[in-house]
């Protein structure tokens, strides 16, 4: 059976949360080492809270394939030889007990800072419609255009929001992406973001002092169809920067299937 050899990086660096918000999307390795099956742990014990900001919840089961050299590695938490190894997606391995305890306090890998779990937000219920349309985004003249329309329904703030019970107005926003491979994958990642309630939040507009409005939640969208406008194209850095913003919310290409149908409507409650 093929063993996956992972590099052990024993740097003791704790990155700050800002730079480390990447989801660990645990995948079952095809080459699970049978002898280690009984040593598998899942990531547990992460308490759900309701603070109104993005939250990290329990991740799916992580499987371990560890080579014999790795078993003699030192756990950077307890500084002893690793026992009951548990491997995070980043490849870092710790004693199961050590990492479980660590994750109870800080939900990221102690060695490299990757977030261990899925981040979800407090986006109110709504609908996301994706269409492949005529026309193009300036700067991507050879590609057609993807339009994404979000509709967030009017409602009352829930316990997760700043003023529970307070009424908020619904909104409809349309955003655009070039219909090329990168644009399509970003669209698929935005769909994951929408399902995880990360695209919008309820906040206040500092500039106008208005409270309890539906606002974008730090994933920048191109909402202006007209060229050379503040929120439009061209913008050669946009596709990379929004990919980065999605990554900070824990969403990467690992979370999507590039052959998934693009057009369609999804709802989120
Ligand atoms: Zn340990
Ligand atoms: Zn790591």
UniProtKB/TrEMBL annotation:
GO biological process assignments: Notch signaling pathway; protein ubiquitination
Keyword Cell membrane belongs to the record: no
E.C. numbers: 2.3.2.27
Record pathway: Protein modification; protein ubiquitination
A GO cellular component annotation in the UniProt record: cytoplasm
InterPro entries xref list: Deltex_C, Deltex_C_sf, Deltex_fam, Znf_RING, Znf_RING/FYVE/PHD, Znf_RING_CS
Enzyme class of the recorded protein, top EC level: transferase
Keyword Cytoplasm annotated: yes
Family the UniProt entry places it in: Belongs to the Deltex family.
Domain RING-type: 75-112
Major subcellular location class: cytoplasm
Protein's recorded name: E3 ubiquitin-protein ligase
Catalytic reactions on record: S-ubiquitinyl-[E2 ubiquitin-conjugating enzyme]-L-cysteine + [acceptor protein]-L-lysine = [E2 ubiquitin-conjugating enzyme]-L-cysteine + N(6)-ubiquitinyl-[acceptor protein]-L-lysine
GO molecular function, one term: zinc ion binding
Keyword terms of this UniProt record: Cytoplasm, Metal-binding, Transferase, Zinc, Zinc-finger
Subcellular location: Cytoplasm
Species whose genome carries this gene: Dreissena polymorpha
